[in-house]
Description:
This protein has helices at 69-72, 188-194, 258-264; strands at 8-10, 34-35, 44-49, 52-61, 64-67, 83-87, 100-102, 104-109, 123-127, 152-157, 179-186, 207-211, 225-228, 231-240, 249-253.
Amino acid sequence: MQTLVIIFTIFTISCAFPNAYDDNEDIDHIVGGHKANSYSYNFLTALLRDGECFCGGSLVTANHILTAAHCVDYIKPKDYGLIQLLLNTSTLNPPDNGAIHRGVKKIVHHRNYNSATSVNDIAIITLDSPVENIKPIPLPRIGSTLSYSGMWATVIGFGRTLKTLAEDESSGNGSNKLMESSLQVISNSNCSKMYSESKETKISASMLCAYAAGTDTCQGDSGGPLIVEGTQIGIVSWGYGCADPKYAGVYTRLTFFYTWIRFNLV
């Protein structure tokens, strides 16, 4: 009997590698995406270490970046100086003229984040100085109970660009250019059916899923925003493969974390 090994993909491998960028305009990025307009998404933040992008995030106040816990839970305060935050750019190397650089003052991730199940995959970075002249992306209104099921959403990031099935080994570089794509939010019940064979991970109420044939987020897009009608509703979290037709991408559901977000935006 052949054993199928499923790779649980948490999207944290480098967004792009120095001197290995792909500038071919005809190749899709973010897996099945297209080049994004940086002025539309100048709140998008690249998290860099030693000049390499390892995750994304989004500016939600002048002083705070929202990202995924799995992007930063291992970073100790003594290492904050090694992390750089890059905003207002459509390319990583070199950044656009007018790109904004910031450092890290503080990182807090959800105390109940579970790396095995990806439950509570949310974190907030406090910047070392405010970001002026960039409008933070709005978050869902307090008390919103929207499931967003059936709505079309936008994802953006500098992550890997190659389609990867769940049973394949992860490989390939990220994109030097900011890319975007459209996905449809699906119900948690339908998403749970896609992952019904998984014993390690379950689709919880704190997650939401989005899917479209041939496109998906991938490694390096982690921590970035899932956006519906100009509002961030999710954080790129995990999935099986990248654009594997059998699996949707899984995101942290922001409406589940109203209290936690408000408490930590101080």
